[in-house]
Each structure stands twice: as structure tokens, then as C-alpha cells.
Amino acid sequence: MRVFLAGLSIVAGLATAAVAIPAKADPAPDIGNWQSVLDQARGQTVYWHAWGGEPRINDYIAWAGAQVQERYGINVVQVKLSDTADAVAKVLSEKTAGVDDGGAVDMIWLNGENFAAMKRNDLLFGPWAEQTPNFAYVDVEGKPTVINDFTIPTMGLEAPWGMAQVSFYYDTARLDSVPRSAQELLEWLVKHPGRFTYPQPPNYMGSTFLKQILTELVENPKVLQQPANQADAEKVLAPLWGYLEDLQPLLWRNGQAYPQNGASLRTMMADNEIDIAFSFSSGEVSSAIEAMELPDTVRSYVFDNGTLGNTNFVAIPYNASAKAGAVVLADFLMSPEAQLRKQDPQYWGADTVLAMDKLPADMQKAFADLDLGIASLSPSERGTVLPEPHPSWMELVETEWQKRYGVAQ
Amino acid sequence: MLRFFPAFTLILMIGPVCAGLIGTMLPAFGYLPALGGDGISIDPWRDLLRQPGLAISVRLSLVNGLVATLISFSLVMLFCAAWQGTRIFAVMQRLLSPILSVPHAAAAFGLAFLIAPSGWIVRAVAPFAGWDRPPDIVTLHDPMGIALIAGLVAKEIPFLLLMTLAALPQADADRTRQVVLTFGYGRVVGWLKAVLPRIYPQIRLPVLAVLAYSTSVVDVAMILGPTTPAPLAVRILGWLSDPDLSHRFLASAGAMLQLILVLMAIVIWRGGEKLAGFWGRVWAEGGMRGRRDGTLRRFAAGAAILSAGAVFLGLASLMVWSFAGYWSFPEFLPRSFSLRLWMREYDMLGAILWTTLVIAVLSVMVAIALVLGCLENETRRFQKPGQGAMLLIYLPLLMPQISFMFGLQVFFTGIGLERTLISVAIVHLIFVLPYVFLSLADPFRALDPRYGQTALCLGASPARVFWRVRLPLLTRAVLTACAVGLAVSVGQYLPTLLIGAGRFATVTTEAVALASGGDRRMIGIYGLLQMILPFAGFALALLIPAVVFRQRRGMADHNRV
Amino acid sequence: MSRTLNPDSTTSSGLELRRVSIRLNGRGLVDIDIGIKPGEIVTLMGPSGSGKSSLLAHICGTLPSGRAAGFEVGGQVVLNGMSLDGLAPQDRHVGILFQDDLLFPHLSVGGNLAFALPSTIRGRDERRQRIDEALESAGLGGFTDRDPATLSGGQRARVALMRVLLSEPDALLLDEPFSKLDTELRDQIRTFVFDQARLRGLPTLMVTHDPEDGAAAGGRIVNPV
């Protein structure tokens, strides 16, 4: 008993001692003076927490790290996540433990709800994004989502990295014609029951499908850009639930089981379980074909009335230990050279956030000459980009979906 | 000095676990200042009870956990009863042991591909059935959780078998079995009536560990289990990962509920034990000989072969996937093969394996030292640790990881002990030590005490007796315990990721990250990579004693398990 | 070596059990008062479970102590004028032979003997010589590097005895050491053990339930209680 207490007091002593030792301080860089930021960044190591499920993206990140090391002397380490929430959890637990400086996470690849949550809980450093040199090239006018993340203003707390737009894809060897709207999808499924499904909300892709349908079916789309109002919510969402009622029995496995993420839709298409799937990037589909996950007869398309589009970003936690390094890295990611390589389906195939007309002539030509890949949609093929609804709508939709369809009948 | 080992071990284990529990309990009652939760309230519980399908999730976790454990336990007991002491037993044991080095997730992935409606088994049949599309049936993610139970059973059988084998010598199983046979009992019935009651107290703890794991498993449940709704542990992970940070309170309440579920499962199991004990006595005294047990014996062998076979086939499928080009239904084998992905991973491989190995070796070395110290102390002082102390050591085995990981993370961050190799090794130690203890305790205690007494009376100091007599005799047991510890450490995901704060890329952190990308090829490659180190560990545990003691036939007994 | 000689008594006064009593969980197991002279072989006979082995364990110092074990001991054990109470087994210089030879399976025959050889005998050559001599005297010349598992029962019993003797004990305890040997060997080994004990002047206490062992020993036969 005595030994136990002695030991406990030793541990307690260690705990207090450690808390008393200040964590490694990292002063905020002076964004206005870019040279001072570069000087501060030199020699730092940036731990970039980014989803690591796609080897091509990991390769791209490694390339970016090498470039930044060569040019600015910054060491970049990718912490491969299976879920962005793990990085958010880390920052949160540090804030809980009172670690307000010298944190473990220097940069996170995120958007949407994750960003909204971090912003709401004061977990981000900034503002910084709009003062970086390369931000000047960003297409703020043509792509409003680069400063409005799911309708929440970014306020310079995150830097845009890539564009994403929902596109559908199918195997041309199996299908001749495809539905091009929510209603057509329903009709198509009547003829081909069980050949389509969507990931189970609250998974990101699953929610996206629901948002897509909602945006198409809602009476007044502008309502969705405003925060959800409990009073009218039921009326606004009614068309969605009516649609899903009709849809559910026609889904794969009669809607009794759902895939768990967007990536599994690819696998299911290869397994011949479904005929139509969707993703956030047509470039991703080209990459999948190159990686031999899908046959080369697969093609992408969009709905006639447009599909949802958004931007994904990189942000810096409030307690990062290499803020200057992260800022410089983020700036590099927005550079025309990095964005060009990103759009090249040989390396990744994701769309750029930059405005072509803001770029120097040689970069404009390089972008124009890029071979976008066999299943990717060229800018002209992309159709209308629909804006994302306000996050509060999604919370309502996800909660209600859980009640209605989250438990198999 | 040895006297302090048990207390020190306990503190090392329990301190962090308690901190972890507290760190989860507080948010469960609304207290998490970092998110604005400043007071105590039961709102998180109200929230939890409002979640749709909660009752089903709870029922799934509880029932699947109990059923999976019951099935694995019964099959292992039946198998031992039917075949112990025969050559077939030795063969089957050798077949089942390598499965110990297969990580749960890899085995689950392999099984998933086998039984999916678009999986290997169906593809084998498809040409004859004329299917060009997979049948629209639910085998994977079935709502009853049968696929999940199958996946759990396949991995638990080898583990329980290992534990049972370690317990047999202490119960004098061989001679008991022979005596009972002379009474005219059939093999199976005789073993069950005479040997099982004696070894059960030894294997109770591993069985409870299996029960706790099955009731709170996350990764296997995500791969094989129901999704509408999912078992509780999977849902908790979902709430924890929800971008809406206020769901953390809900998740903490869920984690507490999960803990209660595990305790309930254990209570139910113990109740079952009492019942079985009562009926067992009646049955044993009934005198029924059960001589005609041929079918039962064949069934036992069949079940063992089936479970081992399923895992091996699953692994084979992972291997094929790792080399596959485009592979679609209903092709039985890929159209083309490619080394591309292997080549790409090759460069990073060395560093990742090295990190995994260093962490594992550190935690296993400390665990072995502590366990040997505690066991040696026990022998010298003639005192077995109390039930309470043993419960504390096995606590990390019995508690769902998800119920204390967040609190643990805060604790380590708070004492500044994170992002270092030492801290990751310490966290791994928390999970490695109970398994090492479990593996080593029986063989250590089963060692003939007269060896030690003889050595002491020959004038050797207790230290000399330990290093020169007891330890060499326990070589294989120690190496096996090391291999088990190594496998446990290699398979850790949340602890490495959260406490290491992403600084340490191990084979498992990479595997899980890549698994979220859905490509079966990457899953195959990393599943196989995850097995390399544990497999090497078990192989060494087999080879080293065989080589070192090749001239000593007397060591064959000690080398057997 | 924590042995100090008491100048007032003779250096070899043998093994004395002065009113030694052992109780297990309240039940009286052993109550004995006897002195064994050097070279004398005393036989302890009694039914099984009567605590004979516990007495031997108590003399060697390996009886489990502590409340949990349940043993209560009284009296004094004195060897050559020095009390053994409180001494650790390795400091008592009491040798014991069990029913099983308990040769360490991981060491060779020579290794087993070397284990017993006191560390005061230094030098590999010197030690090797002692071991070889011991094996010769037991009729096992040339067996130094053999694997104990390859020896016959009788050979192993002889190695076990030589091992105990090499540790230079001042007393010898025998716990039914011949019961596992077949009849022809038994007589041979028995004679060998007793001769060695008498030769070296070791007070010997033998526990057995075979009356022949007692007769062959030729000494007193007592009951533990």
C-alpha cells in the first residue's frame, strides 16, 4: 500500500513538473513581411496531417515536401491519417491539456464541417492565408468557395488547395445511357434495381449525395445558403424525404445495408455490384483507371442542372510549433507550378484553385496543354457548379436520415 | 529490490489507465472546458439514449461478443478433448500457431473478400452457375452479425488454443486423460469431464480477455459487421470522428456505456460458468461414457481446419490482390499482374519496419523484464499475487481501448510525455504487458520447483538459480511470450497515432490509413507487411530453442509449447 | 561463505534436530528430537503425507514461509554446532537428493557437476580435473560432455549423487532417492550412496517407506512424529 502511494506521488510529481516546463514556443510569423516569414521558416519541421488513403496523393505530398526543402530549407513530414478527425482530436486534447504552444499538429488538410468546428472552437491560427504571395493567383471571383467554405467565410484562416466537384461515373462497356438528374436516376433504378447506392451518412460522400438531391429538389435553393431555420426546415426538406422514400427499396441491398465510404464505391463498381457511382473528382477516376482499380472503359459525367462543388483547404492549428514553415508550405501549394502538377492526372488529377487569367502567359499555356486524362471532365464539360448548403442544413438532414434509414427495418 | 517489481508494474500500468478512464468519464458527464463544457450534467446520456437504434447496437455488441466467445471456447475445448496427445493435434497446433501473427484487421479483410457476394468463393462457383453479376444477397455486413462472429472466431481459436496448451501441463492433463480412458470413457467425454474442470481456472482470464475484445472490437466490426446499425464500439468511433466536436460528449457517454457492456458480458459469462459447473457436476457423476464419439471428433477436426483454412485462404487472397492488375467479377484470378505497387512501397518499407520494430522491442523488453521480475518474486516469496493485483494487471485487456484512449492522450500530453519514442513504448507497454504475463505465467509456475530447490541446496545464490537454471529451462516460453508481445505491439493503431502524435509511422498506422482508400491491393500489401514481424517472432521462438538445445534431448519437454 | 565455527564445540558434531516441530494449518506434521552423528545414516519412516518431505525441506531451508503457506515451525536445526535458523538455503551446505535425479536438462553431465562445484575452486583446468575425477570414481569416466537425457536411470542417479557431493555439503538429505530405480539397480546405487556418505563423514537423514532401504542403511529407524 505504501509503495503504491509512493509511486502515485512520483507520477503526480512528474506531471506537475512537466506542466511547469514550458512547451517549445513558436512565435507567430509576421505575415506582412514575407522575407521574415521565410527566415523564420528555415530549418523548421512541419508535421502535415493529411488523409493518407491514396498513394498518389501521398506521392504528391512527398514531392511538395522535397521542393520546399530544396527551396526554403523546410522539412515536411506527412502524418498519414485515415480520418481528418484524428488531427482535430489531437489539437483538441492539447487544448484540454493546456498545451497552447508547441503543439504536435502544424498543418491539416481539411474543409467543410471539420473547418467549421475548429473555427468555432478557436482551434485555428490566423488570419494568414490571404496575405501570402501566391494567394494573388487564386480565383476568388470565379470560384467563390475558395473563401467560403460550405458558406462559412474562411477569413484567412485556411488557404485553398484544390477544387472538387461531384461527378458521376459509369462503365461504358456495361451501360449505354445514364440518368442525368435526380428524377432520371429514380426512373433508371426502376429498370435496374439494386445497381446504385450511396455511402452511409454521416460519411462525407453520403452526405454529399443527399445534399446534391436536396439542392436539385428544393423549391428555393437560396434558402439553403442561409442557416437552417427550424420553423421552415420541415417544409424545405420534405421533397428530399419524399424522394428517398421512393429511392430506398430500389437501392443496392434494398437499402438495408450501405457502403461505408466513397472509395468502396469504386471497388463495388469493379466488383460489378453497382453500375453508377460518384466521387468528388473526375480526375480521381482517371487515376483509379491508371492504378488498375477500374477498367479503362469508365467515363465521368455530370447532371444536367449542375452538381455540387467545393474547395478543400489547408489550415494551421493555433498551437502549431512550426507556423512559419506551415505558411510557406501552404503558399507553395498555391503556386502555379504546384497546382499544375496537381492537376496533371499523371500525378494526381485534382482541379486547380487558381484563375487562369491571373497567371503569367507561360503558365497559362502549360495548363491549357495539360492532358487531363481519359475519364476526367474538361472545364467545358463540367457544367454548372452548385454551391454547398450551409452546414446547419446538413446536420438536420443527417440526424433525420439516421432516424429514418440508419436502422434497417 | 525484486520486492518492488509487482508494485512498480502495477503503477506503470494503472496510472495511465486510470487517467484515461477519468479523461473519458468527465466529458461523459459534460465536463470538457476546451469545448465549453464547464459543468456537470447528464445531457450527454440523454443524447446517447436518443440515438436511433441504440438498443440494437447494444444488443449486437453484447450478443455477438458472448456468442463469438462461446463458439471459440467450445471449439477449442472440443478440439483438445478430441485430439490432445495425438499426432494430428501437433499438426493442427502447428497449423494454427502462425495465425497468431496475423493482425485482426488483415484476417478480417481476407475473410471479407472470401465471403462477399462478389468474393472469391462466389467467383469460384460463378462460371458453373452462369452468374455475370454478384447475387444480391447479404453475407458481409449482415444485420445479425454472423460474418463478424465468424471473423472473430477465426482469430480467437488460435489464441485460446495457445493459452490452453500452456495450461495443460499444470493440470497433469496427459496422465488424467490416460486414467480416464482406462475407466472406459470415450476420449472427448472423458477429457471434458476430467481435464476441463482442472484447466478452466487457468484459462478463465484469457477467455474473459477474448470476451472483452469481442464485445468492444472496432476494426473487425467495421470490416465484417452490421452497419445499420453498427455495434456500439463502431458508433462510438463515428461520434468521436464527427466534425461536430460537441459529439465528443456523446462519444464519452457511449464509451462509458461500452465499459458497462463489457462488465455485463463478464458477469453473464461468470453466471454461465456457475451454471455449467452445476450441470457439469451432475453430468460427470452420471457415468455416461460417451464411447461413440467418432463423429464428434471428426467435427472438431473439421471445425479447426475450417477456421484455419478460412484465414489462410483469406491471406492468400490478400496476396493475390497485392500483385493484381485490374481484377473484376466474375474473374477468379486477375487479368494481369503487376509489381508496381510493391516497388513503390519498397523504398519506405525499411524505415517503417524499423520504427515498428524499435517500438515493439522496447515495450516487449520492458514487459518481459517486469513480468519475469514479478514471477520470480512470487517464487522466492512463495506468494501468489492477490486476485485484486492480477485484475489490475489484466485491466487493459478487459477494458475497451476506446473507453480510455482520449483520456490517455490528454494525460500523456499533460505530462509532456508524448511525441517521443519512450512515450509510445510506454503506451504500448500497457497493452503488451498483460499478454506477456498471460503467456508466461503458466509455464513459469509449472516449472518443477525442485529444480530451484536443488540448485539452491547446491550452493547457488537465488540470482544464479534464476539466470542459470530457471531462465534457460523457460527459453521457449519466454521467446513465445516475446513473440506474443511483439504481435500485440505491431498491431497497435490508436495508441501509436494519438500518443506518438503522428511522429512514428508504423506498419499498422500506414495500413489503416491506406485501408481507408479502399484499394484492396494496398490493403493486401500492408496486411502482408503487418505479418512479417510477428511471424519472424514466432519463427524465432520455435527455432532458437531448437538450435541452442539441439544436443539436449531433455529440453524437448520444455520446448514443446 | 557465511559460516563461522564455534570454537567451543567440536567441528563435526553432526546434524542435530532439537525439538523440531512442524505444523501445517494447525495440524501437527512433525515433532522430532534427534542427533545424527557424522557418517551415520538415520532412516525416517512413516505413512505418506506425514510430513517427511516437509521436514527435509525445513532442514534445507526451502520450506515455504509466510502466512499463505500455512507452515508453523518450532525448535532448532543445528549443523556442526551452528544453528541453521534464518540462513538461506544456499548458505546451509546441506545437500539433498530427490526421487527424480533432477539433472538440469540444458546442461551436459559435466555442466551439471560444474554448477555444483564451489566457486573457490578456480581455473578451468582445475575444475575440469575435479569433475573428471568425480565421474571416474562413480564409474562414469568420459561422460563429461554427454547429454544427461542419454544416460540410463542408474547412471543419472550416480551423476546426481556426485553433483551433490561436489558441492561439499556438511550433511546429506535423501528424499526416497531409490524408489524410481528398478530392483537390480536399487541395491547397487544404495550401496554407492551410503558408502560415499560414510566415507565423507556426512550425517545423513533418509526418508523412505521401503523397509529394505532402512535395513541396508543399518542405522536407526525413526518416526517423524
Write structural notes for this entry.
The complex is a heterotrimer of chains A (409), B (561) and C (225). Chain A is built from 14 helices and 11 strands. With 409 residues, chain A is α/β, with parallel strands linked by helices. Chain A has 2 domains: 205 residues, D-Maltodextrin-Binding Protein, domain 2 (3-Layer(aba) Sandwich); 163 residues, D-Maltodextrin-Binding Protein, domain 2 (3-Layer(aba) Sandwich). In chain A, strands 1, 2, 3, 6, 10 and 11 form a 6-stranded mixed β-sheet that branches. The relative contact order of chain A is 0.18. With 561 residues, chain B is mostly helical. With 225 residues, chain C is α/β, with parallel strands linked by helices. Chain C is built from 6 helices and 9 strands. In chain C, the strands form 2 sheets. Chain C has a 5-stranded parallel β-sheet, with helices on both faces. A 4-stranded antiparallel β-sheet of chain C has the order 2-1-4-5, with helices on one face. In chain C, helix 2 runs parallel beside helix 4 and helix 4 packs parallel to helix 5. The N terminus of chain C is likely disordered. Chains in contact: A-B, B-C.
Write a compact overview of the structure shown.
The complex is a heterotrimer of chains A (409), B (561) and C (225). Chain B is mainly alpha-helical.
List key phrases describing it:
heterotrimer; B: 561 residues; mainly alpha; MetI-like fold; 24 helices; 0% strand; globular; C: 225 residues; alpha/beta; Rossmann fold; 2 domains; five-stranded parallel beta sheet; four-stranded antiparallel beta sheet; 6 helices; 31% helix; disordered N terminus
Net shape of chain A:
globular
Derived from helix and strand composition plus strand pairing, the structural class of chain B reads: mainly alpha
The total count of strands of chain B amounts to 0
Largest interface: A-B, 80 and 79 residues
| Terminal Cα span of chain B | 31 Å
Strand content of chain B: under 5%
CATH topology of the largest domain in chain A: D-Maltodextrin-Binding Protein, domain 2
Order of helices and strands of chain A: HHEHEHEHEEEEHHHHEHEEHHHEH
Distance between the termini of chain A: 55 Å
Continuous helix count of chain A: 14
Radius of gyration of chain B: 24 Å
Q: Enumerate the spans of chain B where pLDDT stays under 50 for 5 or more consecutive residues.
A: none
Helix content of chain B: over 70%
What is the number of strand segments of chain A?
Answer: 11
Give the overall shape of chain B.
globular
Question: What CATH first level of the largest domain in chain A would be assigned?
Answer: Alpha Beta
Query: What structural class do the secondary elements of chain A suggest?
Result: alpha/beta
